[in-house]
Amino acid sequence: MNMFYRSAAAPLCLGVVLLAMAGISACSKKDHKSSGGTTSDTTATGTELSAADEDSLKYLMYRNMQVDINDIGDNQDLPAYYWYKSVPTLDPHSSIYPNADTLLNVMRQYAINATTGNPYDKYSFLDRDSSISTELEDGKVEATKAVEGDFGIQVVFAADNNNDVHTLVEYADKNSPAGKAGLTRGTELISVNGITDFSSVTNRESVWNAFYSGNATVSLITQQFGSSVQSSITLSAAAYNINPILFDTIYNTTQGNVGYFVFYTFTNTYNSAGSPTLTKQLLDAEIGKLKSANINNLIVDLRNNGGGAVATAEYLDSALAPSSAAGKTMYWTTYNDKLNAAIGVSGNGDETKFPSSTGGLSLDHIFFIVNDGTASAAELTMNNLKPYMDVKLVGDTTYGKPVGFIGASLRAHRNGKEIYLADLYAINFETKNSLLQGGYFTGIVPDQLAQDYVDVPFGNADYDENLLDIFNYINTGRFTTNGRQVTPLQQSGRVKQSSLNTHIKSLRFNGMINFRAKQLK
């Protein structure tokens, strides 16, 4: 019998300013996989540079963030970093910074959020193998030097009411090796490379390494939700096209049809060549299904969606918004004061509008299921819709990231050759909706708190507490509070939240990137 476990855990007018970035950078690359949970997005990846190249990287990174976004040798005073004013003058060549990541971590500590007393910037990072652009902009997981693709699975540790630790699938991309093997949310991993005891930190770290350290294969014994049958499978890492929709269905209720789909990453709607991506095709098909079903309520499941391309957030908002939003302000974008002045941004910021016609849905309510892994472009999507329709959030407080990246590819020149160093993702802009609501650095608090039992499959309206609360609202006009009716199966899994995922690594990027600056070149 399955237990119910609680998870532990208008286009930018950047003009000449960004066009000149081609000399040291290529704008807009993708969201980064965090190696330390959602506490930081700063992680070095890829091969090590020589001492001379690492020194160049420190210099170019500091120049981009604090001195000159273009770095074309004319001593412009155009820093790219959103919080550049808070950072004192530093010597990027100093030996106290052994590498660029150390320097970046120091720079991130200076802008302090007065409300929390902590640094604003828990986001900026270096991507040293340039893998983000392919994954987010082109929607592909491709080969690296070490391994062909990945397994396409997010695993999580959870405890039952006896405090026994279990390993479960939080989600798996349908096109990935894990998805094709039938693994999905709620699948329990009884054994991972022979490890069956997940109570120790050492064993849990070994499990994470099995999935996320570039291994070519991983051997599993699995058990599906509601079944006692165990199966042995071996996953082989592979390249694949990302499918951001994990699950969808239509519920037929006494209050009309209710649509539901799970969207786990904001891969771009158009790739680097300007062609429509699989993401666009799937979103178009999904909206078509919802319209054909004549739904009057919609549930969008954004649990563990760390964000991605701004353009996809805009595309989804345009499809979901009511006709009354057509042609009106979707959101405002602001940069630091010097970039704002250079590119002519004033007042509320750079305005992005809804298109002249929206997607054609007519919704009484739109519900978003969220948790602490819901971030950035996912938060932007919800915030943009709030001024125009009844938006309800159910689940847990979101991650908190109302800021985003443009991206810069830093390169040095040696002996007449250009040498790639790293892609820099330092915070460049902040967004607010049409009512100037934003600033959710500590996350967006949901309208209704609900537990996330990670062994309950997507769409299970009998046992998913989030869905139970939403359907109660649809039927009665209020969320469930005290006295929620639960089955003995659910009660068996109502356990204390554990801190088992201290070394959690997100399969997909956490952040928000605007790729259109690249398209202006």
From TrEMBL:
Q: Which Gene3D superfamilies match?
A: 2-enoyl-CoA Hydratase, Chain A, domain 1, 2.30.42.10, 3.30.750.170
The record's section on Pfam families has:
Peptidase_S41 (PF03572)
Domain PDZ, which positions? Answer: 140-207
Annotated PROSITE patterns: PDZ, PROKAR_LIPOPROTEIN
Name the SMART domains on file. TSPc
What Gene Ontology cellular component terms go with this record?
Answer: outer membrane-bounded periplasmic space
Spans of biased composition, class Low complexity?
35-47
An example GO BP is: signal transduction
Concerning InterPro entries, the annotation shows:
ClpP/crotonase-like_dom_sf, PDZ, PDZ_sf, Tail-specific_protease
Quick one: signal sequence residues?
1-22
| GO MF, any single term | endopeptidase activity
Q: What is this protein called?
A: C-terminal processing protease CtpA/Prc, contains a PDZ domain
